[in-house]
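--- STAGE predict ---
source: upstream dedup step, 1 unique chain passed
mode: sequence only
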Amino acid sequence: MTQRSVLVVLFDGVQSLDVTGPMEVFAGASRFPDVTYGLRTASLDGAPVRTSVGLTLVPDSSLADAEPPHTLLVPGGQGTRHPDPALVDWLRTQAPHAERLVSVCTGALLLAAAGLLDGHRVTTHWVVAEHLARSYPDVEVDPDPIFVRDGKLATSAGVTAGIDLSLALVEEDCGRQVALTVARHLVVFLRRPGNQAQFSAQLTAQTARREPLREVQHWITEHPDDDLSVDALAARARLSPRHFARAFQTETGMTPGRYVERVRIEHARRLLEDTTDGVAGIARTCGYGTPEAMRRAFVKALGTAPAEYRRRCRPQSMTSTTSSVN
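--- STAGE serialize ---
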C-alpha cells in the first residue's frame, strides 16, 4: 500500500485553489484501495486563515505541532508578498526534512525567501517570475513551464498548474491508471506536460494597435496551414515586408515568425489533445507540411515529440497511432 503524508501550509491571503486543487487530486487518489495520502493543513499558530477571496480555512494544527510530512506543499497567494518572518523561519528549518517539497504559484517566493531554491531550476506564475529572478539571483527561474521538477523540489505556475503538478506526482507515486482516473473525475487532462507553455501566443503577444496588424494576427490564428511567410503576411497588411516585420515586432513584442511558430504549436497541441487525428494529418492542418517538421518544432518548443505529448495528455485508448513519427 502506498502511504504518504501531505502537509499543506496555510497563511492569511493564501490562494484557495492553490490549496484545494492539489488536495482534491491527492484525496481522489486515496479512494483507491492501495493508495493513501494523509492530508493535513497547518498554519503558523494553528489559527484559522482568510484566503485571498475571503474564505476562512480552519487548519488541522499549528506548524509546530505538525509531524514532518513526506510531501510539504506551499501554496501561493497575496500573502506571499509580505510573508510573516516566523513562517519563513519555519520553512527554512523544517522544509528540508520533507522528502518532497512542492510550491504552487507564488508559493515559490516563500521558499526563495527561506533560501530553499538557491541553485535550483524553478518556475512560478509568469507575473512574478521576473521579480523572483531579480530578487534571488542564485535561483534559476524559468517563466515558461507549467511545472518544473528538480530533485526533490517541484514548483508550478499559477493556480490550476498546481493540479497538473499534483497529478504528475500521483502518477509518479501510484501509476498512470490512478492518476488518469483522478484526472477524469476532475474533468481535466492527464496531463499537460510540465514544459508546456503557461499561456498562449495570443496572450503572450500584445494586440497590435493598428487594424491591419490586428487583422494579420487574427488571420494567422484562423489559418495556420496557409502561407504565413513575412512576404505573404506583409501583402495582407498592405505593407512592405521590411516595414511589416518591424511594425509587427514593435506592436506585438515578438517577430512574425515567432508568433506563427507559437500559433502552430498551440493549434497542433489542441488537435493532439482533443482529436484522434493522425500526426501526419495534424502536421498538414497546422502548416508544418511533414510530420518530421512538426516533430522538430515540438521538441524545440516543448521538449517532447507529438506522439509522446499525446500519450501524456490523453487516455491511451483514445490515442491515435496512425503515424510512425514520434
